[in-house]
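Supplementary Methods, section 5.1.

A reviewer requested that the exact input to the structure prediction be made available. We therefore reproduce it here, unchanged from the version used in the analyses.
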Amino acid sequence: KEGQRPPAGDAKEQILGLLAKLFQKAWEDGVISPDERGLLAVLKIELGLSEQEFLKIENEKKSTSYLGHLREVWKDGLVIPEEAERLEALRKSLNISAEEHLRLEAQIRKEMQEKK
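The structure derived from this sequence is encoded token-by-token as follows.
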């Protein structure tokens, strides 16, 4: 209930983990729906998170979600034009910078090289 003290210790960590998972799931399709946004806002209030803390978690999960999409596209070692277009649209909807995209893409290529 609003106005209650946020959970302490392990309980707060578990709820923060749940919030991170919810963000991850919400960003899978590249957009957070109003219903998803409302649920996340309730958790923010219940946890007593500042806007800065909340945005930090959201941004981390945007990158994680995008990284998952990049891995899927790169799994065969080749990005076809249609995949590149989808990635570009997703990158823009997640507000991932071109620099962040290049950093994540380099990370995936490095992972692929290490698997060989």
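The chain has five helices and no strands. These observations are discussed further in the main text.
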